[in-house]
Amino acid sequence: MKHYSLVLAAAGAAALAQVPTQSARADFFTFSTGNPDGLIATASRPASTGKIETESADDFVLTQQTMLFSASFTGLVTSAGTGTISFPRVTVDIYRVFPNESDAARTITVPTRANSPGDVELTGADTAEGNLSFTTTTLNPTFAAANSILNGIHASPNQTTGGEGAVTGAEVQFNVTFTPPLDLAPDHYFFRPEVQVENGEFYWLSSSKPIVSPGNAFAPDLQSWTRNEMILPDWVRIGTDVVGGTTPPTFNASFSLAGETAVQAVPLPPAAWSGFAAIAVTGVFRSKRFIAQRLRRA
Predict the structure, then answer these.
(1) Tens-place pLDDT, residues 233-283
(2) 3 CB-side CA count, 13 A
């Protein structure tokens, strides 16, 4: 008899288990800092033969759990004058704001770490690891930025150089896809792309600060930061520390993100519950008839 009781209980549980208790909805997520403004272009590249790693990063905020499927960023690609330009490697890293993923107790070599990216990345993707793919679109064969940063990234007290002057190249948009998507919790982050250029350089282009249409303004919108292997793991502010001046400028960098927020639970109307209960009860009665038939045959 105990065996048939278990069958009866299982029948009711199975009927309820087949019925979802909620309907689900996911929202498409997009974010953009807007179009390049031509004010500054800053190097962002992985280490390669004869070149040290140099990073530039700008921030964004997520208010919900989000899966990032893709991103785009726009920069200048300059030519070394010899050979064919190619892009052997593209990477994207996501940092949280300092002191996350950082040693906050050590002595820093820069003016401040407040509101900078952390020492090390939280997550990322890389063509070298097979979890990032990309395409490129040339937006303008000739585009000029009024200032640039390539080699002039130094520790205190020599962090302020004013920049390295105007730079001209092709305006290229890089469109990247993350496989698998980057799964990020609600938080304040920095987006850091790098492009390796064979026979040239990649400079990430700035965008308006504060963000204007078609960008998506948010608060607090932090300024962009940069570093190279000489000051690692510290970062310096591109405008306040490197460019400097009586009234230092602040910059954003041109990028966009696309993905999907976490599934939203949508409560079902009360009428639906009565229907599901009827399904469960029907399953129980059918199980009872089945048991009775087995007993008679026995």
Answers:
(1) 999 999 999 999 999 999 999 999 999 998 654 454 545 434 434 443 344
(2) 3
Task: Tell me how far apart the alpha carbons of residues 210 and 33 are, in angstroms, rounded to a whole number.
Answer: 9
Token code pair at residue 23: 């309907």
> Residues 6 or more apart from 202 whose CB is under 8 A from it?
43, 44, 45, 75, 76, 77, 194, 195, 196
Q: Is 52 exposed, middle or buried (0-12, 13-18, 19+ CB in 10 A)?
A: middle
Instruction: Quote the CA–CA distance of 172 and 257 in Å, as a whole number.
Output: 17
Measured distance CA(124)–CA(296) in Å, rounded: 65
Residue 227: Cβ-neighbour burial (10 angstroms; 0-12, 13-18, 19+): buried
Give residue-wise pLDDT tens across range 140-149. Answer: 999 999 999 9
Q: Can you tell me the distance from the alpha carbon of 45 to that of 194, in angstroms, rounded to the nearest whole number?
A: 4
Domain coordinates of the chain in residue numbers?
A: 2-21+269-297, 25-264
- Tell me the longest C-alpha to C-alpha distance in the chain: 97
Q: How far apart are CA 216 and CA 35, in angstroms?
A: 11
**Pairwise CA distance, residues 204 & 225, whole Å:** 12
pTM as predicted: 0.81
The conformation of residue 108, written as its DSSP 8-state character, comes to: P
Report whether 60 contacts 155 (CB < 8 A).
no
Quote the tokens at residue 84: 């064919």
Q: How far apart are CA 117 and CA 121, in angstroms?
A: 8
The single-letter code of the amino acid at 157 is P
Task: Find out whether 49 and 196 touch, Cβ atoms under 8 Å.
Answer: no
Separation between Cα atoms, residue 207 and residue 194, nearest integer Å: 17
